[in-house]
Amino acid sequence: MLGAVEVAKRPNILFVFSDDQSYKTVGCYPESFSWVRTPNIDRLASEGVRFHSAYFGSWCMPSRASFLTGRHPHGIESMRMEGKYPASAYDPEKTPFWPAVFRKQGYYTGQIGKWHTGVDSGWGRDWDHQIVWNRPLYPENAGAYYEKQKLVINGKEQWAEGYPADNYTQWAREFIEGKFRDKDKPWFLWLCYGSIHGPSKPAARHKGMYASAEVPVPKDIFGPRPGKPDYLNRTQAWLKNDKGVAVAGKSGEAFGDESGKKEQTHADFVRQMNECVPAVDEGVGKLLKSLKDSGQLDNTLVIYAADQGFGMGEHGFRTKLGPYDATYRSPLIISMPGITPKGKVCNQPVNAPDMVATIASLANIKLPWETHGRDLVGLLKNPEAKSIQPCLYQHTGYSFGSDVAKVLHENSSKAEHSNVPWYNSLVYDGWKFIHYLKPGVGDELYDLKTDPEELVNRIADPMARQRLLELSALMNAELNRCKAPDALRLIQK
Question: How far apart are CA 350 and CA 1, in angstroms?
Answer without folding.
Answer: 32
